[in-house]
Amino acid sequence: MKKIAIIMILIVFTMMGCTNSDQSDTVDEVDIQESVQTELGATETEVQAAQSGDDELNQTLSDWVLGTEYGIEEALFDYDEFCVEIKISEADYAKLQDYDFTDIRNSIIDILYVHGLNDEFEIIFANGEKIAVEETQSSEVGYEETDESQQSEDTQMPTQEGETVNLIFIHHSVGENWLNAGLNQMLNYNNFHVSDTYYGWREMGDRTDTSDWPNWFNDDVMPTVYNELGNMTGYNDIDPAPGENTIIMFKSCFPNSDVGSSISDEKEIYNSLLGYFSEHPDKMFILVTPPPMQSISHPDKTRELANWLVDENGWRKGYDMGNLFVFDFYNVLTAEDNYHMLIDCEEKHIINDSSNTLHYDSAGDDHPSDEGSIKATQEFVPLLMYWYEIFSESN
After folding, report:
1. Which of 77, 126, 127, 184 is the Cys-Cys partner for 234 at CB 3.0 to 4.6 Å?
2. What is the four-CA torsion angle of 177, 67, 86, 105, rounded to 10 degrees?
3. 99 has a pLDDT exceeding 70
4. Among candidates 325, 353, 360, which has minimal Cα distance to 249?
5. Cβ contacts of residue 394 below 8 Å, gap of 6+?
6. Looking at residue 365, what is its pLDDT?
7. How many Cβ atoms are within 10 Å of 268's Cβ, its own excluded?
8. Residue 88 has what pLDDT?
């Protein structure tokens, strides 16, 4: 663990901490209208087709808003003006940094593109500032976008010797924060190339609730996941290995940690996935349990489910394929003294504190703080390497 701690010191943390979106009633709200106009102009057929998915697109935008940390209150697409209208308080808008604008822009590009709208457009803010999507810099809004290759060169960490392994992470905002708080670089350091899916990824990116997993793990969707080597969050210091993704990580966001008064439905869903996993012994699957919230209706049931998923005599009892593993993200974030880690080359799941809700909140927000993400990275990466050895031996 000393080695992991030393590596973590080298990580450049670029993620801005969560801000509390609760503001005084005296704060004026401003509507930032981002006018989206294609260079060639959308055809009438394209606009009509897009309008038919109005509810679905705005639901995607609403889901994205819930996953952001920028204090955004609402995002709606206006087909008449062909723009995205974002409601945010003046105070929260003033806090946005250069990379926040870039993240907001890229997220909206992805969401609009997956809903059939051309991604070659410019964003026009209410004050007249513009960002052309095809450009890599925009001095008009007072910031320069960071070129990924240059950013990688500036912050690149040395990697250990060894063959590169392709890994893909299916996630939403908590996963994005985790990757950007050092996980991505730690994985690269240990020769894991990271691809990921996020809001707007094809037709499935918005759907990462527990109930959605059977719609992912089938022979219709997963071949595309195996071949997805691009990333929607962060960047890589290493090139991907030839071929497909070997490791598939998947995680639901924090609302899924409120399981209610019964976990029988969750157990049924997870059990339904085992058949697919067993049919693909050449792939390594890692379930990351949903992170906790500050308030959970039946936290004892959430704890029971997490323990069942991790316990080899629980969910995976009788499953001996050597390609399915579970990281208890939930437990790691419930207390400083709760762990899921590698100790003396043995996997240890330790509960020293009976707290069953989020300990590492972000100023009252249910997104885990950078401190929590760092703790999770320190515990997860050594486990991943240990699990990968087990997986490799089974193959």
Report:
1. 184
2. 40
3. no
4. 325
5. 281, 321, 322, 323
6. 86
7. 10
8. 82
**How many Cβ atoms from other residues are within 10 Å of residue 111's Cβ?**
25
In whole angstroms, give the CA distance from residue 236 to residue 284.
Answer: 21
What is the bridge-based pairing of β-strands 324-327 and 247-251?
unpaired
Paired sense of beta strands 130-132 and 121-124, if any: antiparallel
pLDDT higher at 229 or 143: 229
Contacts 24+ apart (CB under 8 A), 313-322: 315/267, 315/270, 315/271, 316/274, 319/274, 319/277, 319/278, 321/277, 321/278, 321/281, 321/394, 322/281, 322/390, 322/391, 322/393, 322/394, 322/395
pLDDT at 68: 65
Answer whether 233's CB lies under 8 Å from 196's CB: yes
Q: Is the dihedral of CA 209, 211, 214, 220 positive or negative?
A: negative
Cβ neighbours of residue 128 closer than 8 Å, sequence gap 6 or more? none
For residue 193, how many other CB atoms are within 10 A of its CB? Answer: 22
3-state secondary structure of 288: strand
Percent of the chain with pLDDT over 90: 54
Q: Quick one: 154 exposed, middle or buried, by C-beta within 10 A (0-12, 13-18, 19+)?
A: exposed
Query: Can you tell me whether residue 230 is helix, strand or coil?
Result: coil
Tell me the C-alpha distance between 307 and 363, whole Å: 28
Mean pLDDT taken over the chain:
78
pLDDT reading at 388 higher than 90: yes
Confidence of residue 119 (pLDDT cuts 50, 70, 90): low
Q: Which pLDDT score is estimated for 57?
A: 78
Strands, DSSP E only, in the chain? 29-35, 37-38, 72-78, 83-89, 121-124, 130-132, 165-170, 192-197, 247-251, 284-288, 324-327, 338-343, 346-351
- Rounded (10°) CA dihedral 110, 114, 117, 123: -10
pLDDT of 121 higher than 70? no
Q: What is the pTM of this model?
A: 0.66
Q: Are 193 and 230 in contact (CB under 8 A)?
A: no
β 130-132/83-89 pair status = unpaired
Q: What pLDDT is recorded for position 114?
A: 58
Mean pLDDT of 29-58: 45
> How do beta strands 284-288 and 192-197 pair?
unpaired
Q: Are 292 and 255 in contact (CB under 8 A)?
A: no
